[in-house]
Amino acid sequence: MYTGSCLCESVQFEISGNISDIVYCHCSKCRKAQGSAFATNGNLKLVDFKFIAGEHLLTQYDSGNGQLKYFCQKCGSPIMSKNTNTPELIRVRLGTIDSAITEKPEAHIFVSSKANWEEINDSLPQHDEY
Questions:
Q1: Selecting from 2.60.40.10, 2.170.150.70, 3.30.40.10, 3.40.50.300, what CATH number does the domain 2-113 have?
Q2: Among 29-33, 60-64, 67-71, 102-106, which is the least confidently predicted range?
Q3: C-alpha span between 14 and 97 (Å, rounded)
Q4: Is 110 left (phi over 0), alpha (psi -120 to 50) or beta?
Q5: What would the pLDDT profile of 14-65 be if each residue is shown by its tens digit?
Q6: Taking phi first (over 0 means left), then psi (-120 to 50 degrees means alpha), and beta for anything else, what does residue 35 get?
Q7: Are the beta carbons of 40 and 95 closer than 8 angstroms?
Q8: Which phi and psi angles does 34 have, rounded to 5°?
Q9: Where are the domains of the chain?
Q10: For strand 107-109 and strand 39-45, is the pairing parallel, antiparallel, or unpaired?
């Protein structure tokens, strides 16, 4: 079981299953959503995700192609995203998880559009796209 929250701790959640497909995403949309060089995201089954508090404080942004991103209205923390093509899954921003995570990142994606000031210095596979 994992627990997580936004920066102001108004939105709190639990994850009861495993996190899979953990990647560092370097696309321009993730950079803007995170305000950083990349976003670290992982998939999980929607049935394994439960809000404990603050679900009503989420705001949604439709970033196109069926991608819906959810943020805390109070502090702006990105919590998760959903894709209408895979409604049984959600992608969680790993930075919002408060528990120690046992699963590890598997790859860097969209490195073809990474920030020009960023250097990737690990041995994980790098992919130009998803």
A1: 2.170.150.70
A2: 29-33
A3: 9
A4: left
A5: 999 999 999 999 999 889 888 899 999 999 999 999 999 999 999 999 988 8
A6: left
A7: yes
A8: -90, -25
A9: 2-113
A10: unpaired
Nearest partner of 96 among 45, 42, 47, judged by Cα: 42
Length of the chain: 130
Structure tokens belonging to residue 58:
């989420």
Take residue 98 and report the two structure tokens written for it.
């408060």
pTM of this prediction?
Answer: 0.90
SS (H, E, C) the chain: CEEEECCCCCCEEEECCCCEEEEEECCHHHHHHHCCCCEEEEEEEHHHEEEEECHHHEEEEEEECCEEEEEECCCCCEEEEEECCCCCEEEEEHHHECCCCCCCCCEEECHHHCCCCCCCCCCCCECCCC
